[in-house]
Amino acid sequence: MARTHGRGGAGARKSNKKGATKGSGGQRRKGLVGKGPTPKAEDRIYHAKHKAKLERERRNSGRHQKETAEMVVGRNPVIECLHAKVPATSLYIVQGTRNDARLSEAVAMCNTRNIPILEVQRHEMDRMTGNGLHQGIGLQIPPYKYAEVHDLMDRARDAQEPGMFVILDNITDPRNLGAVIRSVAAFGGHGVIIPERRSASVTAVAWRTSAGTAARLPVARVTNVTRTVQDFQKAGYQVVGLDAGGEHTLDTYTGGTDPVVIVIGSEGKGISRLVRENCDVIMSIPMTAWVESLNASVAAGAVLSEFARQRRAAK
């Protein structure tokens, strides 16, 4: 029998492969090129660590986290807040809580000030406060509404009197902040400025320490203290930094009658280096040699009292 030759012969084996049998014509060449090292998890947009990185960058850029309502718990703290006229949105009382004079007083004050009183189950209060140490009572306080620095300057100018402000640098204790607010209000100051980061904020503790003056004296919060100091200088303010070893003391400085900003640092760290370099004057407070330093709120009160005296004498 004759052998059949050629591709189309009856005995030829058919291939099951589809498409080209010899290479891809260069169409898959790009797919063979290496893509480099695998990106870090925080650089992959679909990864949870990428979201954490974005949140970290947002905080580090100077923007603070969104303020939330604060819950003050315990009978004595609630009474103190109500006496200090801290703004409150509601009073929560656990159902079945034993009544006493403090609870009755809190309820009476809330009724007088038209603050809603709500009864809740104990497990609800535990969830709202994060613990069971609330003594069956809690006062909800809304976030503090901070002012803008330039609005504070405008208010002082509209009042047709030289402005007097306090900038707090590295003050992390809310009791210090509250005491400074109280001193600024007592001696005719126009406002307090605090940084957004690494600083105490106006919480219920600061409200109570201010003895209610936080309701009337504005507090501004800024992202950059150095830039704020420079803005005050451009507006004609003399910036006085309180620190040891200055060229002036409280006895020799007579510029308290001019528009002035007093910069106060923490008792331990003092004023940060960059802020200190931008102050017009560095001033110290004379005191007994064996006392190293003063608490920030005490130092603020001493300087504000002297500047208020100079302003009264100039009238």
Question: How is the topology of this model organized?
Answer:
Blueprint: H1 48-60, E1 70-73, H2 75-83, E2 90-94, H3 101-112, E3 117-120, H4 122-129, E4 137-141, H5 149-158, E5 164-169, H6 174-186, E6 191-195, H7 204-209, E7 219-222, H8 225-234, E8 238-242, E9 248-249, E10 260-265, H9 273-277, E11 281-284, H10 296-314
Parallel strand pairs: 2-3, 5-6, 5-10, 6-7, 8-10, 8-11, 9-11
Antiparallel strand pairs: 1-4, 2-4
Helix pairs in contact: 2-3, 6-10
Pfam family, one: SpoU_methylase
Protein name: 23S rRNA (Guanosine(2251)-2'-O)-methyltransferase RlmB
Domain RNA 2-O ribose methyltransferase substrate binding: 71-147
Q: How would you concisely characterize the structure shown here?
A:
GO terms for molecular function: RNA binding; RNA methyltransferase activity. With 315 residues, the protein is of the alpha/beta class.
